[in-house]
Amino acid sequence: MNKRKRSTGGTSAKGKSYGGSSKPHSGRSNTSSSKPNSPRSGEDTNKVSASHSSAAPAKSGGKVAKPAKTSKRPGNAHYRKSEPPRQYKVTEPDELLNFLLKHLKSGRNAVKSILGRGQVSVNEKVVTKFNEPLTPGQVVFISKEGAVAAPSLTGINILHEDDDIIVIRKEAGLLSIAADKSDDLTAYRQLMSHVRRTNELNRIFIVHRLDRDTSGVMMFAKSEEVQQQLQNNWKENVQDRVYVALVEGAVAQEEGTISSWLKETKTLKMYSSSRPNDGQHAVTHYKRLKSNREFSLLEVRLETGRKNQIRVHMEDLGHPIAGDRKYGARTRDLGRLGLHARVLSFIHPTTGKLMTFETDIPKPFLYPFRGEATPAQ
Fold first, then answer.
1. C-alpha distances in angstroms, 226 versus 85, 231, 291, 344?
2. How far apart are CA 206 and CA 89, in angstroms?
3. Which has more confidence, 316 or 54?
4. How far apart, in whole angstroms, are the C-alpha atoms of residue 98 and residue 106?
5. Does the pTM of the predicted model rise above 0.70?
6. Do 282 and 306 form a contact (C-beta atoms < 8 A)?
7. Residue 30: what pLDDT?
8. Among residues 127, 156, 157, which one has the least CA distance to residue 140?
9. Most buried pick, 91, 198, 294, 372, via CB within 10 A?
10. Is 211 tagged catalytic?
11. Which of 162, 164, 211, 213 is catalytic?
């Protein structure tokens, strides 16, 4: 049984998300990357030029008449000059919220509100994340006006974004990417629009997929070069992929390994071939977390990443995934597929640092075990 590798000595931060979601969730990320993130969650703050008012001089008897005096009452927008953004230079490594608390004479909630309204930019890029890392040399701008709100994201939350990759948590029911040229809402299409808000030439590239009805952590690349680097060295770069699966029936063994050769039918259904070396080799490790007569909750680790691998192997085990009618399930109580990509741990393609992103077990997966001790989160 492979154990999940962890980075040592790395900084730990909760994976805050920006962009809306159709469903609430919590996500955590542990990163040991020293490279600063480059969030692109908003547009550059518009600079508003100061307005000036002057009366035209009138000639009277060869003398220039003085402009008529007008009272400048407080709150009169016609005379109030727009303030340019305040600037603060970063001199030592810090997190954005902590940096703002040091430089602004405001309370914690007030500073969070300023961030939430898109009034803070780092090197002219709007940032809303409280734990955004800052490095010496960067300049933080605080505008009096908020940025134009970014369109909400449906079914996805961004856990991490930098110049090379985007890591998200996808909800069940959302396509990773469309199989054809249909107009279906997908994670790919939304993230493409997201990165093009700052530069219309920006693009994203698919690195790996999650089935439509599978939720969890997945990653996209921001360049074809990074995509190829990740895909060509997938087994070396990805240190750990952990799923949780709610399966039908009581799994007898506490842990085990399933190994088979997967093939695909003409109806696009995967199955395990009875002949060795007939298809793609697939290896799945599982560990029982909870079990009763109706359901078992398993922790599943992938040694290989084949299409529908876990779903096929759970059917082979005699315990199909709850809600997975395609692969032998009989139950529909869950209302979704009982499969969630909980952990993704990989070597960053540019910095070479280990990054680990972990999310909680979906609450519906725990409903069959209500009243019993829940597994460790």
1. 35, 9, 41, 17
2. 36
3. 316
4. 12
5. no
6. yes
7. 52
8. 127
9. 198
10. yes
11. 211
